[in-house]
Amino acid sequence: MSAKNQERPSFAIVTVVLPGPDRKRAPAPYHFRVTYRNPEPAEPGCVMTWQVTGGREEYQVAAERADDGHINWHCTCPDAVYHGTYRHAYCCKHVHGLQALLEAGGTPVRRDPVASTFVTGTGPGADAPSGRAA
């Protein structure tokens, strides 16, 4: 069997604490598992996909590179689907959490630095007010 045809081992699972699925939005662990990684990530098209578990249902997050190099984020959660027409101005908590995790690792993934504090207590400006009503 050649090295080309051998299956790659599954990717690691990363756990991120995000606001939970209940009405109180108590912090809850969400697990992100890489399900696809493009061997040519700088090329336009799908860069990576993640399976998200830990909420009410399983979701999928995808990062897509546009022709101009910008990364478009997609999530299958109901919140992202509902706000889909405002995709340029809105990202769900799953995308925000993943973006904050990647940026904490030194990978810039968005144009505006807003919401890197979405993951509880991390990122630049973690002590700054969030602008949300309590």
Description:
The C terminus is likely disordered. The radius of gyration is 16 Å and the shape is globular. It has a domain of 92 residues. By secondary structure, the protein is of the alpha+beta class. 13% of the residues lie in helices and 29% in strands.
Unreliable spans: 112-134
So how many helices?
Answer: 2
Q: Give the beta-strand count.
A: 5
Structural class: alpha+beta
Largest sheet: 5 strands, antiparallel
Straight-line distance between termini: 59 Å
Helix residue percentage: 10-25%
Nutshell version of this structure?
This protein is an alpha+beta fold. It has two helices and five strands.
Keywords, separated by commas or semicolons:
134 residues, alpha+beta, 5 strands
Describe the secondary structure blueprint for this structure.
Blueprint: E1 13-19, E2 27-37, E3 45-53, E4 59-65, E5 71-75, H1 78-82, H2 93-104
